[in-house]
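User: My collaborator sent over this chain with a note saying "see what the structure looks like." That's all I know about it. Can you take a look?
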Amino acid sequence: MSVSNWIQALSHPQENGIVIFVSGFLLALGLYHLLLYFQNKIPTYLYYALYALLVLIYTFHRAKHFILSDLVAGHRMQIEFFYDPLKWLYSTVYMFFALSFVDLDQYFPKFTKYLKLFLKTGLVILGILLLIAVIINNKKILDKAYNFAFLPVIFLLSLYILYLIYLSKSPVKYYLLIGAGTYLLVTTYSHYLTYTGRPFRVLFYGATAFEMILFALGLGYKQKLINEEKNLWQELVIKEYEKNLLIKEDLTKKLGEEVYHKMKQIDTLKREKRIAEQKKLALSYSKQILQLRLQAVQAQMNPHFLFNALNAIKNFIIKNDQKKAVTYLSKFAKLIRIVLDHAKLSETSLHDELELIQLYVDVENIRFNNGIDFKIEIDDDVFIHSVKVPPMIFQSLIENAIWHGLAPKKGDKKLHMKIAKMYPYVKVIIEDNGIGRKKAREIREQKNMTLKKESMGIKITEERLAVYTQAFKNKFKIDFIDLYDDQSQPAGTRVEIFIPVA
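Assistant: Without extra context I'll predict from the sequence alone. Here is the result:
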């Protein structure tokens, strides 16, 4: 066969099987690299696969007696409508592939950033033009935009990018330079022949196949370099790890010795600090206890109580009732002596505390002509001589019951204390049948009286119990309970104090 006959045969790639070969070749490469992308998640594989498959879509339907082209034989007109958008699209993907293939952003980051922005903008413009063409059912706007705007710009950009790739230090740049350069020159010449009426499309298919082969080889070589670098890093990591193990053993030995010496120093410092803190804490507790003792004496030696008691005794003397005067004066003197003696103590027996309360109520009862029925009940299992409590701890509660609960009440006045054992506590109940806390509060508000005295006494009692029970496992509790009769009317107040004994 003569040369002219060979050229004539090659000039019809749709009939001589070249399109079928290239289409199948593109299909295989596209699917293979798409799988590689899903396996390795490297964007370059994705761009390569998309480029191969887009070129396949552009070419496969041209072949005769090809299974894929036979499937779309009835839609050739619709496919040809999208020729220029396809070329625009695969040229854009091609540019993204080139940038990713040689990692151009490592060498020319600013240019690469603006180029990607330009390509993305071009895709947006392509979408708008395609929508317009579909609406008006005329693809001339696409043809003109591609041939007279996009193609010249992308051609000049391709030349400049090839120049930048040449300047870069990418180890795979020559695969792209040779493949892309050959494709650019050959396809440009092919387009020239087509527009001058001498189409020789086999050049396009040959250049496409040659370029795809070089790109595939370049990707393989790039993956080899990545694997070699990864293996090198693994070897370095292993060597560094072995070196670190030796250093670690040496440091562990030295650290163990240092830790031993430091622990001895820390133990010494801890002991010294503990002793200092204990001294400081003991001093703080002592100051707090002394302050609370003073507050307790000040609260319990109420001036009104002293004045009323002395005034009552004076009335007995004026009435010449010497017997009562001597009796109450004796009790009053004994009460004052016990109060002053107890102020020096940190704790006292429950027996002595109840004796003080009995004396206090007896003296207070002078004002009520002994109208207060006061009783103390003690369960048999409570040994009041051995149970310890803070001195004068119940006085302010008894005082509140008398002054605010019983004093305003008409009729019988009852005030009872009950001592019971509820391990690990001693339970002390102070119960009165007075007017109740709510009514007492209303009376004080009407008379513009302050709650400060009452609340201060309760607060001091709680603080003293808190200090007293610091060394106990269980803490104290104080509960205030309002009592009501069958008609839901106030019937007094009950105070329950739980003092730990263990």
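A starting point for your reply to your collaborator: Residues 301-500 form a domain with the Heat Shock Protein 90 fold (CATH 3.30.565.10).
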